[in-house]
User: Fold this.
Amino acid sequence: MQNILVLFEATQEDTEGLALAIGLGSVHQGANIRLRHLDPQPTAQLAHKSYGRLKADDLRWAEGIAVVLETGSSEALGEIEQCLLLLSKAGSPFSKVAYVFGGDAEQKSVSHLHGALQRAGFQLLSQQPANQVVTPAFMTQIGERLAEEKI
Assistant:
């Protein structure tokens, strides 16, 4: 069984739904999940309101991580990087896998996040092809894959 952490930056239910789909796929494969909303805005139009805030312990617990970005705000990316830095300083006892979906985030921001994850010991799963339509069903498959990944 894997521990999967799903981080998401969202102001709309569509993006929240993609993150929840990853969690659903992971649970289908018997994984434990934690959902964390990055940089929550009071004006966010989400189905659920209390996902909890990201902590370094979440990253330490996780064997797999999925990040779903709506815009790639500097606040959301900073939140992840700050926890990754704490994790790197503490050392990671085993390898971990990660998947990042950039949404409308700039490729530069997504690439920067990839680098930060790799420096913290995460192996990146391959990204979706550029012409791939990202649907909840696709994200459910990502969640299943994260939970199945042998690390």
